[in-house]
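Tutorial handout. Part one gives the primary structure; part two gives the three-dimensional structure as tokens.
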Amino acid sequence: MKGIPMQTGLLRVLRATVASWWRHKELRRTGQTELARWLERETVLRDLGYLRQAAILSDAHVICGEGGTFIHLGWTNVSTFAPIERFPLAALAVALGTPFIDIRRVTDVIAFANLPRVTRDGSVDAANSGAGRSVSLNTYIDMVEQLGARIVNDPRARQST
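Part two.
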């Protein structure tokens, strides 16, 4: 993407991804080109909204494990069963600076399953404990990193200065 503004590059990736969906290909094949274009436009706008949220929300992150890839955006999750390498939206979010937690190397699944969840609204209830407990993204990263996860775009490094 050398020499291409990031916005143009983003749109190209999103449009190419959406145009390759089997449903949109089938609509074009059957002559329903306008419907395919409309659906593609709506999907690109939705995905741009997800990318904006990933850039704005303090606890937004992408996590990839054996079960697939998830973009956590507060109360919204976007996911696929594919690894991040086959999920362009997640790869774009990470390229734009969203923290990425790669748990594919974590071998202690029981310990991972018992970790608290990342808070959805930015507030942490210190009194809350147990299965419903939630912690900040930084605390979660500390915990999952001890289990062997790889962290990209670590938000802790940005806050240490």
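Part three, for discussion. The first helix runs from residue 6 to 19. The chain has a mean pLDDT of 87.
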